[in-house]
Design goal:
This protein is α/β, with parallel strands linked by helices. It folds into 2 domains: 229 residues, Response regulator (Rossmann fold), CATH 3.40.50.2300; 137 residues, Response regulator (Rossmann fold). The protein is built from 12 helices and 12 strands. The N terminus is likely disordered.
Length: 376
């Protein structure tokens, strides 16, 4: 009981450090870009948490679906937050990353990684997998019974989410889902951008992820739901780009042969959109200059993608906040695992459409995260 009271006393004071820290390497006034809090972080709070931590080591597993620029950004965000907690609270960390080397969309290899983390008694595991939701939840349930906590990130749990009206766990065995809504914070935002720039009139082609992928289903659903509100907009063709650049380029090239007069291309992720913009140039067509040409928009928020936005090749991208996601994973785990706090079952990181008008803001944030040199 005494320990519980101590945790509750610490909980309110530590809230701001768990959700409102500025990015590493950012200027002191960077809080203007994040949430604000009336709670002031104090040295006394840090000392009390350090005493509670008592030099403990926390073993964390990281299981992304593939090794890519996006997940490198997420991992760096997590590492930067871990370094902050190490410095302030004396936490020691063990971090292990394992990602599929073959088919990222089957989830088979990820299932094996999870079982390995459970066998080695890791404290918590962060998972993004394309495996069937029911399969993953059964793994989480078995792992939780052995003391391992699971946190999904960049996930598509909204596809199978049960109502929390009668079940506060939403029928899920993992602690929390740290992500963004693929329908409304990604697909729909891309469609709204196209509709605004084209003033509700034009023809569009879509470069989609693999057939059967939950990410594909959700982003396409959000995109189509907005486009259908504009009678003057028409989706004339779609092709599978496999979520990779070369396939995105080939898919777009084929569609441009059939539909050379299109006005916009939606690539469900940034790699496919970058491939599509290259296909536009290869076909001798004009990229969007703010008034005319072909709009190409993707989704992720990568340094490489934002470089192409600067050059005028990629028009825009939906920045889904991978660094923020990584930091939030650590904050959420620490709040729950160490401080014993009840955390939200579904945590949505902010997303934003980035084009030439605001690329300086968001690219500088990502570069600051990646430039810290922190590794675990």
């Amino acid at each position: 009981m005494k320990s519980t009271r101590k945790i509750k006393t610490l909980a309110l004071a530590v809230i701001s450090s768990l959700i409102c820290l500025p990015m590493t390497g950012s200027p002191a006034n960077a809080d203007a870009l994040t949430a604000t809090s009336a709670v002031v972080q104090t040295s006394a709070t840090d000392a009390a948490i350090r005493k509670l931590v008592n030099g403990r080591t926390i073993k964390l597993g990281f299981a992304p679906p593939i090794l890519s620029e996006a997940y490198t950004i997420a991992q760096q965000g997590a590492w930067n937050q871990m370094k902050d907690y190490e410095t302030r609270y004396g936490v020691k960390w063990v971090w292990t990353e394992e990602a599929p080397l073959n088919n990222a969309h089957s989830g088979v290899e990820t299932s094996g990684f999870i079982q390995n983390y459970v066998a080695k008694k890791y404290d918590a595991v962060f998972v993004c997998s394309a495996a069937p939701a029911a399969v993953m939840q059964e793994l989480y349930k078995k792992g939780a019974a052995k003391g391992v906590q699971f946190y999904q990130f960049n996930s598509t749990e909204q596809l199978n989410q049960k109502s929390q009206k009668t079940d506060p766990t939403a029928g899920l065995s993992n602690v929390s889902n740290i992500s963004y809504d693929n329908r409304w914070q990604s697909g729909a935002l891309a469609a709204e951008y196209i509709a605004e720039k084209l003033k509700g009139k034009g023809e569009i082609i879509m470069i989609l992820g693999p057939a059967g992928s939950d990410w594909t289903k959700l982003r396409e659903q959000g995109f189509r739901s907005v486009i259908k509100k504009f009678p003057g907009l028409k989706i004339v063709g779609a092709a599978d780009g496999g979520y990779v650049r070369d396939k995105g380029l080939n898919a777009a090239a084929d569609l441009l042969t059939k539909y050379p007069k299109i006005n916009a291309i939606y690539g469900e992720n940034e790699d496919m959109a970058l491939g599509a913009s290259a296909a536009v140039s290869a076909a001798g067509l004009k990229n969007w200059d703010g008034k005319s040409g072909i709009i190409t928009i993707g989704a992720d928020g990568l340094v490489s993608g934002m470089d192409e936005i600067r050059k005028g090749n990629l028009t825009a991208t939906v920045h889904v906040g991978y660094a923020d996601m990584g930091r939030t994973m650590i904050r959420t785990m620490f709040a729950h695992k160490v401080l014993g706090m009840n955390v939200a079952k579904f945590i949505r990181v902010p997303t934003v459409v980035v084009d030439k008008s605001n690329v300086d803001i968001f690219q500088s944030q990502i570069k600051a995260e990646l430039a810290t040199g922190v590794k675990y």
